[in-house]
Amino acid sequence: MIALLVLFGVLGAAAVSLIVVLARRTYAPTETGEGLLIEQEARQRAHYSRSTFNSQVVHNSTPTMRDSHHRP
C-alpha cells in the first residue's frame, strides 16, 4: 500500500512540475524581420514535409528500380 502511495506521489509531483514549466513559458512573438523570415521558412519546410511524406503518398507510390519490390 505504501509503495502505491509513493508511486502516485511521484507521478503527481511530475505532473505538477510539468504544469508549472508549461505555465511559465512565454510565447512572445518574434519581433525582428530576420526572425520572421526564419519562422516563415520553417513553416514552409514543415508544410512541404507533411505533404511529401504523409502515409498516403508513401504507401501508395509505385515501386522504383531501387525498391525491394522490383519485378524483372
Quick tags:
single chain, 72 residues, mainly alpha, 3 helices, 67% helix, flat
Helix content: 55-70%
Given the helix and strand composition, which structural class is it? Answer: mainly alpha
Q: How big is the Rg?
A: 24 Å
Low-confidence stretches: none
Pattern of helices and strands: HHH
Strand content: under 5%
Extended strand count: 0
Explain the overall architecture.
By secondary structure, the chain is an all-alpha fold. The radius of gyration is 24 Å and the shape is flat.
Summarize the structure.
This protein has helices at residues 2-24, 33-52, 55-59. It is built from three helices and no strands. The model has no long low-confidence stretch (mean pLDDT 80).
Topology:
Blueprint: H1 2-24, H2 33-52, H3 55-59
